[in-house]
Design a protein that fits this description.
It is a single chain. With 261 residues, the protein is α+β, with helices and mostly antiparallel strands. The chain has one domain: paralog of FGE (formylglycine-generating enzyme) (Alpha-Beta Complex). 18% of the residues lie in helices and 12% in strands. The protein is built from five helices and nine strands. A four-stranded mixed β-sheet has the order 7-6-5-8, covered by helices on one side. The two termini are 22 Å apart.
């Protein structure tokens, strides 16, 4: 896990300007990202890598938890690739088993930005060229794919296939969307220290874009959500990574130690 230091950061994006080339739902999507606002977060740890099929299968084997929806799919179940086809409840159960938790939206975005404030992507402002992340490139089956880019993979890529951001985190854009602990809420209601979205509805935030996503989805400020109990095709591009508060890290290390004894 990587330590993300405490402090302020600028979360979100400026209010949107409707463009003629925008998709019909782009304005509402962009409104969820604004206004940009400065918040303070306590220090936390977050996994450098997305949880792989191999790591998740260890959890399944040791606990008897249900296997992912795509555990028998040869394209999406390769051991070193990120696990997909799991609900928010599955991701939360894995995190608890590992002595960790899911990151809040605010934690996820600060981690993704990698101390590059007001930059568009985890690596900076330059568009994805195929060397930065795994998205809908020329090999993708998606109709909105970008034929000018070749990132080497039509679906998921092995975790850590692309350079890390400034915090040493891999795949903070692309490969798979990542479940967050909380749900999207209006940013003007979430100012302050260590904000956490509502937990009273049946949806949770996902962040980061995926192998099937466009450049629009790769932005650090991009927000989306899924039903917590969704599974199967609805989550063929959704995975997760874990986080932990400093005081909880001992639990994570203890869990690993106990399983190795």
């Amino acid at each position: 896990m990587q330590l993300i230091p405490s402090g302020e950061f600028l979360m979100g994006a400026p209010p949107p300007v409707k463009l003629a080339t925008d998709f019909s739902d782009d304005l509402e999507t962009r409104l969820r990202e604004s206004p940009a606002h400065r918040i303070w977060l306590a220090a936390f740890y977050i996994d450098a890598y997305q949880v792989s099929n191999e790591r998740y299968q260890t959890f399944v084997s040791e606990t008897g938890h249900e296997s992912p929806s795509f555990s028998l799919n040869p394209l999406l179940s390769l051991p070193s690739h990120p696990v997909v086809g799991i609900s928010w409840y599955d991701a939360a159960a894995y995190a608890a088993w590992a002595g960790k938790r899911l990151p809040t939206e605010a934690e996820w975005e600060k981690a993704a930005r990698g101390d590059l404030e007001q930059q568009t992507y985890p690596w900076g402002n330059q568009p994805n060229s195929g060397k930065e992340c795994n998205a809908a490139d020329k090999q993708s089956p998606c109709p909105w794919k970008d034929d000018s880019i070749d990132d080497g993979f039509p679906f998921t890529a092995p975790v850590g296939s692309y350079p890390p951001n400034e915090y040493g985190l891999y795949d903070m854009a692309g490969n798979v969307w990542e479940w967050c602990y909380d749900d999207c809420r209006r940013y003007d209601d979430s100012l302050g220290n260590n904000p956490v979205g509502p937990l009273t509805i049946d949806r949770r935030a996902i962040r980061g874009g995926s192998w099937s996503g466009s450049a629009f989805d790769l932005r650090c400020s991009r927000r989306d959500q899924r039903i917590m109990s969704a599974y199967g095709e609805a989550l063929s591009n959704v995975g997760f990574r874990c986080a932990a508060s400093p005081g909880d890290l001992f639990q994570s290390l203890s869990a690993l130690s106990n399983r190795s004894n």
